[in-house]
Structure formats: structure tokens, C-alpha cells
Amino acid sequence: MTSISLIGPGRHGTAIAALFASHGVDVTLFHYRPAKAEAAARAVRAAALGSTVALAETLEAAAEAAEVVALTTLWDAPQRDVLSRIGDQLVGKILLDVSNPLDVTPTGIHLRTPVEGSAGQFVAALLPAGVGHVKAFSNLATAALHTAADQTPPAVLPYLADSSATAQRVQPLLARTGWLPRHVGDITRSAQIEIGGRYNKVTGRLGRTVLDDQEFTRQFGTASLPVG
Fold first, then answer.
1. Cβ neighbours for 58, distance < 8 A, ≥ 6 positions apart
2. Distances from the Cα of 169 to the Cαs of 99, 220, 221, in angstroms?
3. How far is it, in rounded angstroms, from Cα 184 to Cα 199?
4. C-alpha distances in angstroms, 159 versus 31, 50, 98, 135?
5. Are 62 and 28 contacting, i.e. CB atoms less than 8 angstroms apart?
6. Among candidates 82, 115, 64, 60, which has minimal Cα distance to 13?
7. Where is 30: in which H helix or E strand?
8. How confident is the model over 162-207, as pLDDT tens digits?
9. Which residues does 30 contact at the CB level (< 8 Å), separation at least 6?
10. Taking CA atoms, which of 83, 183, 184, 191 is between 20 and 30 Å from 158?
11. What is the pTM of this model?
12. Residue 75 — φ and ψ, nearest 5°?
């Protein structure tokens, strides 16, 4: 895997796109507001190292552009809208889900508990059969995406997947980010990797939520959790 598409690049999504681009991964961006797409592309291009950064003109073109499609819109209604339009296009591909159950309102940002149990499980309920579902980056502060990358020893990036096969497919791409990917279970455990979950509350030598392999093993054990 040498490319990724990213739909809805806000602040966190743009930082994720820049993380991949700064490690040689080609990035395609789509935002329904062209001005926001252009601003995200400028930021990602400034970080790119040996990679291309392209803009997709349509949501469908973004879904077609890569084997891994990251969905970084706000959760709930925006996700429902996007996946109702391109869900079938994602069959055979991997959806990288970075959502947290946060409502952005005129009075501020509010954490909500989804009926399904987590934002990840909400997304899972929207996906057609045959779409690989991966959950990552939800536990990390935006600034940490870059400051904690490429450390020695490397910081651990916990991720979830709907199956062992999906986990194995996506791991090489996640490993290109300068983080050490660690598969920690299936999508039913999404709440653990979202805000307030077990992987969001810890503190390591590089700061909150950022643990090296030794610290991570001390906290959570040596083995990945079973998928099933």
C-alpha cells in the first residue's frame, strides 16, 4: 500500500494526511467545500516527502483513488451521508475510521454515548459486507501525530480491525507513519480507543496517550486481543 484517500480533512484529518504524506505515502483529499480542500492540500503538500498530494473533484473519485479510504468527517449524520453514497464503492477496500462521538454545537463540543456503544460501532453498522473496517488515531491528540512520530524507541499506534485479515492488510501502511502499529482487538472494542477509553487515558514518556512499546506492554500486555 502506497496511497490513501482522505474524506473530510478538518484539523485532525489534515494532520493525519500530512503524517502519511511526510512518510512517502501518496494522498488524495476530498472536502465538499473546495476552499477547505485547497487549504488542507497546501498544508499536506508542505509536509510531503517523496509523495504526491491530489484533490478529488467528487466523493466518488476519492473513494476510487486508493485501497484505503480514511473517513475523518464529524461523526453521525456526516458519516451516514458519506457512506450512503460510497459504501458500495468501498467493498474490497479498507475504511480507516478515526471518529470520536463528539457533537459540535453552538454551545461547544459535547461527548455523546452512541446507542451502538461507540462511534466505531456506529460506523460498522453503516458499512456494507465486504468492506474492511479499521479504527485508529482516535485516541491521539492532533499535535501528537507528528511530535511522537519517528521516535526511538517508536511510539505505539493501537488500532482495531474487523478481522485478522484486515489487520494484516493495513499494518504495513500504518507502519509507514513513523509509529509502531499494534493490533489490539476488533471493532466491538472501539470505545477503548476513543476519547475517554483505556488507550486515551494513559500517559507515557512522550506525554498523554503516547507510549513506547515497553510502556505499552507494561500497561496492556504483550499479545493482541483476539478478533472475533
1. 30
2. 21, 23, 23
3. 10
4. 25, 26, 10, 6
5. yes
6. 82
7. strand 26-30
8. 999 999 999 999 999 999 999 999 999 999 999 999 999 999 998 9
9. 5, 6, 7, 8, 37, 55, 56, 58, 59, 61, 62
10. 83
11. 0.94
12. -80, 180
Which three cell numbers, joined as nine digits, stand for 13? 484529518
Q: What is the widest separation between alpha-carbon atoms in the chain?
A: 46
CA distances from 128 to 131, 132, 171, 188 (A): 6, 10, 22, 17
Question: Do residues 132 and 163 touch, judged by C-beta distance below 8 A?
Answer: yes
- The identity of residue 21, as a single letter, is A
Residue written as cell 455523546? Answer: 112
Confidence of residue 224 (pLDDT cuts 50, 70, 90): low
Pairwise CA distance, residues 50 & 97, whole Å = 25
Report the half-sphere exposure of 11 (CA within 13 A, side-chain side). Answer: 5
Contact criterion met (CB below 8 Å) for 67 and 5: no
pLDDT digits (tens, 9 = 90+) for 100-154: 998 777 787 787 888 899 999 999 999 999 999 999 999 999 999 999 999 999 9
CATH dotted code for 3-220: 3.40.50.720
Torsion of CA 157, 132, 6, 71, to 10 degrees: -90
